[in-house]
Amino acid sequence: MLRVIRDRWTWVGPRSDLEVTVRFGIRENGQIVGLRIIRLSGDPSYDDSVLRAVAKASPLPPPPENYRKEFMDVELTFRPKDLGG
């Protein structure tokens, strides 16, 4: 899941200290639902880049059947260093 989202994430900016946290659910078919920011970074373009990346990653591969309940409420924090560049 993280790799798929990261592969769709693009952001170019001068600040490396940004951090945004999003929350969403993943349905049985991999569809991302209820995507929202729960902690803003202070840079709207950065926040938007994360929302776009998560939205573009939908549908994700379906969660394993034994773990579907855990994937109903996912919270992720994104930092520029997570891009690997």
Break the fold down into its secondary structure elements and pairings.
Blueprint: H1 2-7, E1 20-26, E2 32-39, H2 44-56, E3 74-78
Antiparallel strand pairs: 1-2, 1-3
Structural account:
The chain is α+β, with helices and mostly antiparallel strands and 85 residues long. The chain has a single domain (2-11, 19-80), classed as Fusion Protein Consisting Of Minor Coat Protein, Glycine Rich Linker, Tola, And A His Tag, Chain: A, Domain 2, CATH 3.30.1150.10. It is 22% helix and 24% strand. It has two helices and three strands, in the order αββαβ. The protein has a three-stranded antiparallel sheet with strand order 2-1-3, covered by helices on one side. Strand 1 (20-26) and strand 2 (32-39) form a beta hairpin. The model has no long low-confidence stretch (mean pLDDT 92).
Number of helices: 2
- Outline the low-pLDDT stretches: none
What's the number of domains? 1
Number of strands: 3
CATH architecture annotation: 2-Layer Sandwich
